[in-house]
């Protein structure tokens, strides 16, 4: 794709360059852009379901800043990349993916609070058992634009508004905070009044927050088995409470839960096609690869040649490159 940095159409083209167009608009609203660039994106991992849009946006934004001698703070970079996705592409995503692309550090767990943008990088404990990251690409590319992702966000907001109304809480600045200002006790008291789908969205939200805190503590003490269990529980809640996940990714998830050597895992992101990810014991790598591949292609033989698997390590984000 090709576009001029100062002549970007308000109408998106529904291609990957939309993320870049959106980032350019976000940057140009605050800084003067004098130079454009030509670039090639190359990688070994599949596109879709691996924060691909955030990765492409962040690396392009970094390059555009470099050629224009612009120095962005980490949070500026994150917010501009998120703004591109929200305003131009039309996906009601948060800033988790972008924050991971910027803040993450090799062999550390990123523990992030998106309410105040505070974060901690928790190092891998010396006592932790060996692990690798496994990526199982379903063979079906993921897109959030046009999926049910935005609907789930709206349902979550609706549940939060309803809980505030039932409890008599004032709205205040709630539009920006979702459930973060609605105590768990309010949900427990009034959840039975919520429509079933709203209740499930709220259940996922509250329990996911609890799993994040528990997961950080498990990682801190080197308990990868507990961290993996929480990861599997997150995947289960995403399927049954958040009600996302394509048939392909649900099948991959089910296979992973029944495979020796996998500590835990879930589908990546919202689960509308794309990838499943897992933490595995490297000693079981070959057995895991063989079983997951065999069982998945037995269920979806038409994806032979499209499905793929990868094994990798963690890496540094933009801040540490």
What does this structure look like?
It is a single chain. With 321 residues, the chain is an alpha+beta fold. The chain is built from ten helices and six strands, in the order ααααβββαααααββαβ. It has helices at residues 17-28, 52-67, 74-89, 96-103, 149-167, 184-190, 196-220, 224-240, 247-257, 285-299; strands at residues 108-113, 118-123, 132-137, 262-267, 275-280, 308-312. The strands form two sheets. Strands 4-5-3-6 form a four-stranded antiparallel β-sheet. A two-stranded antiparallel ribbon has the order 1-2. Strand 1 (108-113) and strand 2 form a beta hairpin. Helix 1 (17-28) crosses helix 2 (52-67), helix 1 (17-28) crosses helix 3 (74-89) and helix 3 packs antiparallel against helix 4. The longest helix has 25 residues, at 196-220. The protein is globular and about 55 Å long. The protein starts with 16 loop residues before the first helix and ends in a 9-residue tail after the last strand. 34% of the residues are buried.
């Amino acid at each position: 794709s090709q576009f001029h940095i100062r002549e970007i159409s308000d109408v998106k083209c529904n291609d990957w360059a939309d993320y870049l167009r959106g980032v350019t608009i976000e940057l140009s609203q605050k800084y003067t852009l004098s130079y454009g660039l030509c670039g090639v994106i190359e990688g070994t991992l599949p596109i879709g379901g691996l924060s691909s849009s955030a990765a492409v946006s962040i690396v392009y934004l970094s390059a555009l800043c470099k050629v224009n001698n612009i120095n962005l703070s980490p949070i500026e970079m994150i917010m501009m990349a998120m703004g591109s996705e929200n305003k131009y592409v039309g996906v009601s995503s948060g800033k988790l993916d972008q924050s991971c692309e910027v803040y993450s550090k090799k062999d550390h767990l990123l523990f992030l609070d998106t309410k105040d943008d505070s974060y901690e990088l928790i190092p891998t404990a010396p006592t932790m058992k060996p692990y690798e990251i496994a990526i199982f690409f379903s063979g079906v590319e993921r897109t959030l634009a046009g999926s049910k992702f935005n609907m789930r966000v709206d349902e979550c907001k609706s549940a939060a508004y309803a809980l505030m109304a039932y409890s008599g809480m004032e709205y205040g600045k709630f539009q920006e905070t979702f459930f973060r200002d609605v105590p768990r006790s309010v949900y427990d008291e009034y959840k039975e009044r919520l429509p079933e789908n709203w209740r499930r969205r709220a259940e996922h939200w509250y329990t996911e927050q609890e799993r994040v805190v528990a997961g950080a503590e498990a990682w801190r003490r080197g308990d990868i088995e507990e961290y993996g269990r929480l990861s599997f529980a997150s995947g289960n809640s995403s399927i049954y409470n958040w009600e996302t996940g394509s048939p392909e990714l649900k099948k991959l998830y089910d296979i992973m839960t029944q495979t020796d050597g996998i500590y835990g895992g879930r589908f990546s992101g919202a689960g509308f096609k794309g990838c499943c990810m897992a933490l595995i014991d490297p000693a079981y790598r070959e057995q895991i690869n063989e079983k997951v591949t065999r069982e998945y292609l037995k269920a979806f033989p038409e994806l032979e040649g499209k499905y793929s698997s990868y094994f990798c390590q963690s890496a540094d984000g933009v801040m540490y490159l």
